[in-house]
Amino acid sequence: MAGPHKVSAEHSTAGPRRPPWCRWLPIGVIALGLILVFVFDIDEFASAQHLREHQQRLTEFVAAHAVQAVLIYLAVYIVFVALSLPGAIWLTVAAGFLFGAVMGSILSVLAATVGATLLFLATKTSLGDYLRAHAGPWLAKVERGFADNQWSYLLMMRLFPAVPFFIANLVPAFLGVPLSVFVITTFIGIIPATVIFATIGAGLGSVLQTSAELSLHSLMTPQVKGALIGLAVLAAMPIAVKFLRRRYASKGR
Predict the structure, then answer these.
(1) Greater confidence, 139 or 192?
(2) Which of 3, 40, 62, 119 suits a disulfide with 69, CB 3.0-4.6 Å?
(3) Through-space distance between the first and last CA atoms of the chain, rounded to whole angstroms
(4) Does pLDDT of 53 surpass 80?
């Protein structure tokens, strides 16, 4: 009698297996989204030129339909981040211009965190588990090393200006970072840069009225880069301290 009961228990805990296509569905949705974006040129909405050309129309729409404007902005920003489209920084600048530095920062941080989380989950589901199953022992070793300082690593990736935002979304998915750790470090790590660019956007009104050039290079001033690099160095301090402790401990043996 023990045999049947054991088999049924195993089936009940294992649950039904998902068909293979379910694994690739999230990546398929992202691919479809990218196709639609480039067919309809949606990526052009996040640019300095678009903000300059439509500033009056945008400000009038926000003034007349504040709630709808917020919802549309959140949806657009989430899509841009989830699809890893270029130009999200201009959406942050636009948020400061349209909603003010404080509200623009809040909306940008929320939307960027949600979009990054969606991309993280899609990548983890479609590629992360598959990669860990076929990569061999080297990936497990990298995962263990990353896990020892994952909070510092993730915050440093968010703060360091040279690390593209989509890279900071993909790498944790491949290295088995827990969802809660990813969400918290993303939310906290993007706050400094978001506040900086939303504040720049809040003071952009007079610049948009002129013919002054607006570019990513003009926004990333030495002061902005220095502030972000300084924060990234602070995030890296625990890693350096732990490394030095291990080195001194090994020498003392």
Answers:
(1) 192
(2) 62
(3) 58
(4) yes
Provide the 3-class DSSP secondary structure of residue 127: helix
Tell me, what's the pLDDT at 166? 85
Query: What is the distance between the alpha carbons of residues 103 and 194, in angstroms, rounded to a whole number?
Result: 11
Instruction: Record the pTM.
Output: 0.75
Phi first, then psi: give them for residue 211, nearest 5 degrees. Answer: -100, 15
Question: Distance from CA of residue 161 to its chain's centroid?
Answer: 13
Burial class (CB in 10 A: 0-12, 13-18, 19+), 172: buried
User: Dihedrals φ, ψ of 145, to 5°?
Assistant: -65, -40
Q: Letter for the amino acid at 177?
A: V
pLDDT by residue (tens digit) across 191-225?
A: 988 998 898 888 876 666 555 566 666 566 666 66
Q: How far apart are CA 77 and CA 61, in angstroms?
A: 17
Residue corresponding to tokens 């969802």:
179
